[in-house]
Prior knowledge:
Elements: H1 2-9, H2 12-32, H3 35-65, H4 78-90, H5 99-108, H6 113-116, H7 118-156, H8 159-163, H9 165-174, H10 180-199, H11 202-213, H12 218-226, H13 232-302
Helix pairs in contact: 1-3, 2-3, 3-4, 4-5, 7-11, 7-13, 9-10, 10-11
Amino acid sequence: MSTWCRAIADNPRFQAFIIALIVGNAVLLGVETNPTVEERHGDLINVLEITILAIFVFEITVRLLAHYPTLGNFFKDPWNLFDFIVVAVSALPAIGPMGMIARLARILRVVRLLSFSRQLRLIVDTLLRSIPSMTHVVLLLSILIYTYAILGIALFRDDDGIKNLQQLKEDVAKAPFGSEERDDLEEQLKQVRLNELRWGTVGRAAWSMFQTLTFENWVGLQDPLLDKYWWSPLFFGSFILLGVFIAMNLFVAVVMNNLEEVKAEHRAEGHAHDTYTQLMNHLEKIKDELTDFEASLQGLRDAPPPGTPGAVPASDGAPAVDSAPPRSPTPA
């Protein structure tokens, strides 16, 4: 049974069929979001869903039995465990308390496509492997952002304007509408509020530097400072140089390093799998030969000895065997 299941599970046509079924299931999930299609063809969609689920259950069962008698080896592979959980949860009824979980599992069935693509698995494994190393890069970026946030507060925060913000609001309220004085005060109030929003606290300054790191409106952060601080481009330029062109390259370096390691592991796993398959096929041949040899020995064991009544005549080229009973010697 395990040999038959292993042959099916490793068959490229069977794997291609399951991949096509996963893609079809993804299309079906998208079609279900259309209320008109759901209303007209709801019964057909339900039949297709049940059929797809039944095939997925059969596929998981075959892959599980392929590891018999050591079924635990199937669950040692995280992708196998993921597939098993998704299919098992998908079998739950889509109503009642477990309805939301069952619907979520139906959506996750699309993600099963990752487990059938070696290249996609390689990418996911690389990203997961890179997480511990990336924490150090994130820590470096956090130190950089915090340092520049403190420096930005010391250089750009308008302490006098923020301190007199309430008085400035009162002056704006007292100024006549439409007057040039009111327009100047409102512009001044706007600049002070922007300064407080961007450099008022460490948290706000750090968020401003993070925006600069992502190139999101960093020019809008710099432009209000140019009139008063002509050297502000040096501040933002040095941060972008350190944060983007150095720290971000560290992310790429970490990912590429782990990619090579994961590739080497996958090659080793593939070689081990091929060796295991060859060994199992060789053992199956030995088992068949031992079975034939045992049958031959059993036939020799059951056959009567030569020279006894009922003995089988010898083949061509061998001395004939007399099947008649032996005669008693004639007395002298």
